[in-house]
Amino acid sequence: MYYGDLDTLFFNLQKKYGGLYEVYNGPERVIWIGDAKLIKKIHIPSTKTNFPFRSRKPWVDEVGIKTTGKGIFFNRNLESWKYNRRILSQTVALPSFLRQFFKTTELVFEEFDGYIGNLLNVNKNEEFDLSKWIVRILSELSSRSTTGRPAYTLSSYYNRLSSKNSKKNIQWLNNYLTDLIVNRRKEIANIPKDQVLSHDILTLLICANTERGPQFNKPGDEPDEPMGDDDIKQNLYDVIIASIDSSSHTILIALYHICKCPAVKSKVYEEVDRVLGNDRSSPMKYEDLEKLTYIEACISESMRMLPTVPVIFKQANNDDNLGDFKFKGGQEFFINYHYVHHDETYWPDPESFKPERFLENKNIDKISYMPFGGGIRICPGRQMGLNSAKTLIALIFKNYTVNLVEPDAPLKKSYIWANECDELKVYLRPRNN
Prior knowledge:
This protein is α+β, with helices and mostly antiparallel strands. It has helices at 6-17, 36-42, 59-62, 78-91, 95-122, 130-147, 153-161, 170-189, 201-207, 229-260, 262-276, 293-305, 337-340, 357-360, 382-399, and strands at 20-25, 28-33, 127-129, 311-315, 320-322, 325-327, 332-336, 400-404, 412-415, 419-423, 425-430. The chain has 15 helices and eleven strands. The strands form four sheets. It has a four-stranded mixed sheet. It has a three-stranded antiparallel sheet with strand order 3-11-8. Strands 5-6 form a two-stranded antiparallel ribbon. Helix 11 packs across helix 15. The N and C termini lie far apart (55 Å).
């Protein structure tokens, strides 16, 4: 039995045994891959790939994730997966959605800013554990942008402070989303057709391929079908889980890396002041996002150093070979992105945090950098996640002087399904105009 950080264990095993090794979990044989050249075959961007699915193993169902042929993350029905992927990926890439998502991010940050200001008025030397705040910011943002309804996670946490370990109740969320979809359909039916609807994901999915919403076509321009309630529910579930867990810890780990390096932090402040201005009252604009190139480079380098999802699993449909080895159909493969991101073949001095890598080298080999996965299973909401990270990091540094309480301490993190920042204590001081 191993007790400790499994990501670190897997990284060290890959370092010891090389780009391809096998382990046994009881009778189950699992192949670990840390060689980017071998991963390339698994990540062929075509539905004809021999690796279209994540695990078919029963443990996926045992942890509460029902693989019912709906949604995208654990959907084992390829035709259903293609349909859901097609609709969801186009929905979260709509300019109207991304603009509303940005505005919602700003509004949620303003709420956070107000609570922090009130707490600082009481105790100017207060420490803030951003790991608690950022997760709640992303929970609130996810709820509002996905369902159109607030979750009130920030206000409840603020009220507790003025006086993580809650497990997600999958059954509760399932029932909540079921009722929400039914009620939203009724609301839309009663809204005049000439009235513009909101651009949250729930509304967009309900209205997709109907007279009230965007039209998405199959390959060959054949019209797609409207989405049923079960598909909508599973897609909402997928988005909510991914947008809270992955995004919040991506932001926290990036903040840690930025604050650990004074030279990097100085450049972040310089870019924020140049692009957004140094007046705390001036709003950030959606068009500012593409100008925040250094902050984006910091996020990219942080995801290289410590990807939130360091390992993904795939399964071969049929017999296949990787390198000089042959494998039977059904073989499960674990792809170690964390290890690939530290391969000196692609990343000189891989243990150093250097955002400039992503500014100076525009031709980074795609197989060496996969923070959002790859192939047909690449994350459909990657632009949404990157936008939320850039917006929140920019607003934090625009409004506050941020310093780590323990600047020499290692990142306090753990790994279960993903790398999670367990604690990030900082001093926040409002910046002068």
